[in-house]
Amino acid sequence: MDSTSSDISTPTRTPNPKQAQSPSDFTFRCPDATDGAAVFQLVRDCKPLDENSMYCNLLQCSHFSSTSIAAEANGQLAGFISGYRLPEQPDTLFVWQVAVHPDFRGKRLATQMLETLLRRIGDVHYLHTTITPDNLASWNTFRRLAQDLGATLNSQTFFDKDAHFGGVHDSEELVVIGPF
Ligand SMILES: CC(C)(COP(=O)(O)OP(=O)(O)OC[C@H]1O[C@@H](n2cnc3c(N)ncnc32)[C@H](O)[C@@H]1OP(=O)(O)O)[C@@H](O)C(=O)NCCC(=O)NCCS
């Protein structure tokens, strides 16, 4: 179960990887509005994620706090997932972005955040997300999750490069995991 306490009274927002080398060093909690600026910077550090406005990150951390998760290492933001329930399918979590600071990758942090978030929410049976075809790390992260959940993973084009993005952004595949 997540800790929802916010023991970040003196937050330093620059990760120091030397102080967090093992998965057990991470703590997980619901984000709040004071995380918005750090999330904005984290996403900037996580290419190829699309950058949103800081205002958007503030909304993710406040209105969507209960379906999002922040991971800390020594009080610093190491990872973040923004998500929300599909308005017409509340048993489905839509994962908007997964971001793990480059200094903390390869430690199963994305996997731990996803699994901790699903445990915390409790009553969702499907997960949707979108992935560009060439983002291998992302595909492998969600394949691992599906495997761990014992659920099937299907995908199909959702937002097309030309039809939806005006040719300026790669197509996004809709990934559907579930039921679980
Ligand atoms: C994608 C990302 C979130 C993965 O974070 P992470 O904490 O390093 O991922 P994990 O350690 O939990 O690994 C999950 C799985 O993906 C695989 N994986 C992770 N990074 C990978 C890479 N660069 N290339 C290939 N596979 C990779 C892992 O091997 C693991 O699979 P396995 O359990 O079958 O071995 C991170 O690289 C990131 O923030 N990237 C930039 C932002 C982005 O593209 N986000 C997309 C949403 S997932």
From TrEMBL:
CDD domains, sorted: NAT_SF
GO MF annotations, alphabetized: diaminobutyrate acetyltransferase activity
EC number per UniProt: 2.3.1.178
InterPro entries xref list: Acyl_CoA_acyltransferase, Ectoine_EctA, GNAT_dom
Pfam families xrefs: Acetyltransf_1
Domain N-acetyltransferase: 26-175
The keyword tRNA processing appears for this protein: no
Pathway listed: Amine and polyamine biosynthesis; ectoine biosynthesis; L-ectoine from L-aspartate 4-semialdehyde: step 2/3
Membership in a protein family: Belongs to the acetyltransferase family. EctA subfamily.
Name assigned to this protein: L-2,4-diaminobutyric acid acetyltransferase
